[in-house]
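Entry 14. Two folds queued back to back today. First construct below, sequence then structure tokens.
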Amino acid sequence: MNVPTHPWPRKTREIHNHHFDSTIWNDLRFRPDDIIIGTYAKSGTTWMQQIVGQLIFGGAEDVDVPELSPWLDLRVPPKQVKLATVEAQTHRRFLKTHLPVDALVFSPEAKYIYIGRDGRDVLWSLYNHHARANADWYAALNDTPGRVGAPIAPPPASIRQYYHDWLDRDGHPFWPFWENVGSWWNLRALPNVLLVHFADLKADMPGEIARIADFLGIPVAPDRWPAILEHCSFAYMKRNAARSAPLGGIFWDGGAETFIHKGTNGRWRDVLTPEESAKYARVAEERLGAEAARWLAHGARTQRGPQGLPAPAEPAPLAG
């Protein structure tokens, strides 16, 4: 691996709320071949976990992604339980995070994959996730020891109101959106970071999976590609949702099939007015800059650099 001349990112803060306990990263013992999958949430996280799991296990039928690839910084179960489970794993580890980079301990040896998705599509999936959550979900997040700050409450009946609350209050009632995307975008020049876009996966899943396999250094036998592609299809994941959703989907009304929802983009176009949609685009450019906002809205298939993105002329500034 080529070592960059600029510093590696450093952890500068902890994040605690109804979901997060970022301190778990302080105690993780990294392995040189670890894979970290980062997203904001509802950006294709489970899809990427499925892809990476299929690559690691060569297209096996029975890969239990939630069991093998835990959300590390989710504060339940407690970090002592989760760290012991992760430490006991003998396969190549692939861990999930929803944190911005400056709340992580960053390993120069691990491989990082970040998935982006238009924030309006994120919001529509997030609303389904939140609106279908059951009493057990609220109890796990609000009533267990270690919660910091206000509890999370049920969403409003109107998805339009939910959209404006989320946009006006930067990620409410979950966590900030723009700093998450921007922190990972700023690492796109690092040799151990790969940015992938949800729309690119939808448009060319075989090509994107091949790019991911190459980045991770995972050779795939030609006769295993059909199984990998089948098992990474949305139709397969929906049929086998209990092996994709956390705890088999017990936290959502309708079970795992609710967690693995539509996987479609653009549903907001039938609800938002042109002015409401333009509001998002304006905020995206203000918070991220034109290039990052364009990537977040459309993906990168039309203008690929070495890692699938327009390569910056100079290394982007890094946290810390």
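Second construct, same run, same settings:
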Amino acid sequence: MDVERSVLVGAYSTGAGDVGFTVAALPAGVSVDAALSVAARLDALSRALWRCYTHPAAAAGDDMTDDSEGWRRQSEREEFDRVLEAVEKPNLPDAGGGIIVEYSVVAESAHRLGRAVHAIGDQAFAAAVRAQAAAELAAVEQAELGDLSGRAVQAVMLSRTSASPVQVAAADALLREELLGGAQLFTAVDPTSAAVAAAHWLHAAATVAAAASGYEVTQVVVAADDIEEVPVATPSMVLAMMQAGASPHDAVTALIGEAVDIAEGKIPNLPGLLDALTEATENAEQQGDDDEELLRTLLSEIRTTPLDTSRPAPDLLEDLLTGIYACMLLYREYESELDDEETIQAFDLAEVDDVVGAVLAEEDSAAAAGDENEDEDEDENGEEPDWPELASPRFLAAVRAQAAATADRLV
């Protein structure tokens, strides 16, 4: 609420900053408490609507029978058609003071907003608030279709438990153009879908680095950590899942789904947690029966999820991109031992020959046109260049070829 201008205001995040807007001008004589009540109920309705986006029925993983989690989510989503009617004509107290309370969180949130607006009793104000509810509803529906333009862009800050094929394709295109995706990966694509594409490209980068270094695909990030400190747990976990046969989508949504459940107070992988506790106890016992300090240390290192539960999808995306960077670090350590023909033979991919050749030719041309006296490890200001400038064209080309060869895993 903007007290100075006497208007109700709103805002949403774009990933690059917040966008503010005017919801409605406050009628004369409206109390601060009444205005804040409307604002609070607009927030509650927005949360209920966006929860249907982050928790779609398709991601519940059950058979949609009555009273199942999938059935409950689908029931909530079906209440979208009643939202605007409930805001306009809410359930009001009867003569005896009783009131109908909806079972659905979405429906009841809409009725509570309608009652708060009704209490103010101004038609123009009511129409403006209803228009904002309609805009928020449309933004959620638009995001569900994979279109994050306009108000739907706020989805880039949320952790959805499933991925949009449209958004995965958009993220894949960004990563193909620039291996770390650039700023648009965080401001124009929902983070779960971006993480799915990033997992695909991480696996491609790890395959290239493994072929060059001799390490296993699942060990390349661990090996790179000896060169420069990088997050190890999450990228290695995703690589292990994919090496075991999981698709990028399944690996990413499984990790995000677990983190979302944990944030809501659930324990999605109790057997795994018990195994970790047992292993920590056995390791401590092997060191000595009385080593309680070691046991406490080992237990303190156990995590229910490697992700930040307050923002699991963006956190996973960041770790996967750093994992790609780690693959580049390891590849660079062994690159001098390779030649172009060995690179091509290592992958046996038809596309590599053309792609690597074209990129290396472009690099040679650029080098010939540049200052021959300039140190190739420094930029024009004498500073060491940032990623992706540090990645060699051979590495980038090989990763792109590997990603193209396994593109069917993204479908």
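Quick look at the second one. Strands lie at 7-13, 18-25. The two ends are 45 Å apart (CA to CA).
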